Each structure stands twice: as C-alpha cells, then as structure tokens.
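Explain my protein.
***
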Amino acid sequence: MDEFNFQKNNLLEKFDKYIIASQTDTKGNIIYASEAYCHISGYTKEELIGQPHNIVRHPDMPKDIFKDLWLTIKSGNKWVGEIKNLRKDGSYYWVKAYIEPNIINGQICGYYAIRKDITAQKELEKLNNSLEYEVQKRTKQINEQLFKDPLTSLGNYNSLNEDIKDYSDDFIVLFLINIDDFQSINNLYGFDVGNDVLKQFAKFLKDLDLFGNYKFYRIYADEFALYDLADFNYIDRYYEDLEELKRLIKKEKFYISSIDNYIEISVTIGVSIGQEEPISTVDMALRHAKRNKLWFQTYNTTLDLTNCLENAIKVNKQIDNAIDENKVYPVFQPIVNKNKEIIKYEVLMRIRGTDDSNNDIEITPIHFLDEAIKTKRYNYLAQIIFKETFSKMRDSDKQFSINISYDDIYNFTLINDLEKHILKNKNLASRLVIEILETSAIRNFEIMDEFLSKFRNYGVKIAIDDFGMGHSNLSHVLYIKPDFLKIDGEFIKNIHTSKESFAMVKSIVAFCHELDIKVIAEYVHSEEVFEILYKLGVDEFQGYYFYAPLKDI
C-alpha cells in the first residue's frame, strides 16, 4: 500500500507540474490551479484561488465562445475549443481547452479543465496566413499585369490567347492591325513620340463605334488586335467594319504635344474569320497583305504558297552554305553587374550569308531557325554553337548562358549532345547558365523534372528568359525554381516613360527576390533606364547601352 501511495503521489506531483489544469465551483470560481497553469498564466496559486476564471480572459475572444462553453458544460457535456488567454504581464497565450462538469450523484458540483499550450502553433498559423496573403496579393498583381500591355493598358498577347482558348469552339473574328512603317516614326521623332502615337491609337480603337462587340489588344510593338465572337449570318457586317475602320484611320490625325505637330498613319490589316487557329492564320493573312501591298487580306488556305516556297528554298540554301563553309558561329553579348562589370556572356547563334544584292551579311536566327528545325538541321547548328561555347569558356573565367526552349528539352539528341560537352568539361559546368525560353506550355513534366535535376546536379544554373511576354507563366517560375529570371525587353525599354512598365518590373523584382531569384534586365539602352533598374534592385543588366553582341571576347 505504501508503494501504491508513493506512485500515486508521484503521479499527482507530475500532473500538477506539467499539466495545465484547473477546477472551479459551479459559478466558475477557481478552487484548484496546477503549477503548470500558474506558470503559463503568470499568476501564483494564491492569486488564482477564489478568482473567477475570466481573470485570464483575453479581450480578443468573442463573447459567443464563452456563451457556447457555458451552455455546453451546464448541460452536462464536455466542451473542446481553442482559447486565447491573457497573462498577468499583459501578454497572451493560446490553449486548446477540454472542459467538462464534475458530476456527483447526478448533480454538477463544479468543472474540470485541462489545457494544451498551442501558442507556437497559432503563431506559426498566423505567420503562414500572413505570408500566404502576401504571396496571393503579389501573384494577383503580377498576373493582372501579365495580361495587360503596360504602354496602352489594352490586353496583351497573353490576354488574347486566353480569351480565344475560352471560346475555341465558337466562330471567331480576329483583325490584326499593323501600323505601316512605324519604325520611321521612331527614327524621325524618337521612342517617346512613337509611344505617344501608340497610346493615342489604342484610345482611338477603344472609342470606335462599330458593329462588332470587339475586345482590343496590343500584342506586339506596332500591332493591335480586334477580337469578337461572330454570328455566321452577319459576316458581311464585319467587312463593313473593316471599310469603316479604314475610313476613320485615314481621317484621323494624332496630335503630339511634344513636337507640336500632327502625325498621320496608315495600316495594313489581316483578317481571320471562323478559323481553328485564329492567331496563326490572322498573322499569315497580315504578312501576305504586307508583302503584296494590300490594305487588308482575309486568310485562306492558298495564301502566297509560291512565295513561301521560294523563301524556304532561299533560306535553306543559306543554311547549307553556312554549314559547308564553316560560317555558323556564336556571338557573345556581355551581361554586367551593378558596377557595370562584365560577369557573364549570353551566347547567340549567327550565320553568314548574302542579301539579294549578293552582299555578305550576318543573319540572325529569326530568319533561318524555323527552316532549320523543319529540315532537321537545327541539331547540327546547335552542336556547333555548343562546341564553340565550351571552347570560349575554357579561355575565360566568366559565366556563359545558352538559350534552350521547352521544345529543345524534349529533343533528346540535342540535350544528349549538350550533356556530352558538360561531361567532357565538368570543371566548366558551374559557369554554364541554361536560359529557358517559354515558347510553349510544359508538355511533359516528367521529362522536365529529369532535365532540371540532371543539369542542376552537374552544377549548371537555370534561368527563365523573356519573362512577362508570350507564354510566361508564374506557375512555371514556382515549378522550375530558376536561379535567374530575365525580364522581357518590352517592359525595360519603356520603363522611364511608362508607369505600367515601372510597376510591372518592380513587382517582378520583389516577387523574385522573395524567392531568392536573381533578376536580369535586357534591352537596357540608356543611363536613365539603367539608373531606374538599379534603384529597383535589378541584379544584372544587358543591352546595347553596355555592349552589342561581340564576335571576339
């Protein structure tokens, strides 16, 4: 019996020391408080005994909670809930409380309460909720900006693409408007005047009173789109809109206060009506109209097939000659830090060819890459660039970045060749950056995971290129977790004149830095733009203000 009493007393002592417990009479006055309860509340037992339990009630707790508590325990049932309490020193703590009546001979004689300290858990929840709110807030801001053209506040390409996806089974009318010879306005008056013309033209479009219930977009530089869901029975009305649009544009003059003069424009329009791929077909129609000096063209399946074939033959001949005569080569555009010191180079592919007058020229990928891919020679061109890149890296201590699209990642021949170069030059891998260009959506996450894991294990850094335009996607950033993010030049070049571009870049920088991602700005063309980006916290810079692409480094 002595051993039993000893064990019993020992257990009661431990209960008193470690369990936050109390007992009250039927009115809620404390008649017992454990040592643990005294410790967490900051009161002594003498200060607690005889006091009502609301001595530790926190003013933040709703009265309804305690009303429910008393109704429950007075009816003979157990109450369980979370309570915020007030310490003697004015601070607070959270407990999960288990309160039930002490029933003797069918009568409630008082109440027992046992509590668990959940302060740390509640503080973590509060922190998580705060972080989640901030992330959601910033994600929403950036998402909204990703779907709006910063210069004109019209929808951008992303917005148009999403709108069309939502109604892909409907009969869609799409106009693509290009301002003729817009580059001449920039060359003659400067970018500020050009931007003013674009903004005024955007307003002009929004103020149009036409038959169609159009949505308006600026999808690229001097190209605007009008989109509507059509009724096949009213197709003629859309052609009437085209004629009215032509008449109004011809009549309109845009006053530019900075030069105190008016600027008139003309346009060329591509039209896609009821096509399965409205964006690609309207673009083909516009290009046909431009080549043939038509003021508009509606897409049809026979558009300029002969000219397309002739151009393809010419481009393929240029590629063949470049390969045969060793005229495929990389150029290197420096990327600098905040002190304007070169820290890395972006590797860009070039070939040498001839123009229509047989003059020797440098040709950029925009003119030959599609044909190289179609004719299965892209891998060979890329292998040349990989080889030359690693050769340059051996003679330099700088980082080098190469461009890879999502489609390239699924090109096993190309990726295997890149991997072979890395395995031969393992000491260089940590200075290689792969810039992923979001040319399409991620089609196969398993292959993407394997690619990211494999090359990161070699020490290769990952960047996302041209973020903010095209297929840019915040979820891709969170999924890829890049080391660098390069903001699209469309936002950079106007940041000194556009509040929208400024806000967009500021949001992207803040978002990236919260995720420990370094931000690179390309298309930096002036000291003014550099200073703005510097103050916003951009980490690295690229553009003709610093260096044009270099053949020799």
Notes: The two ends are 93 Å apart (CA to CA).
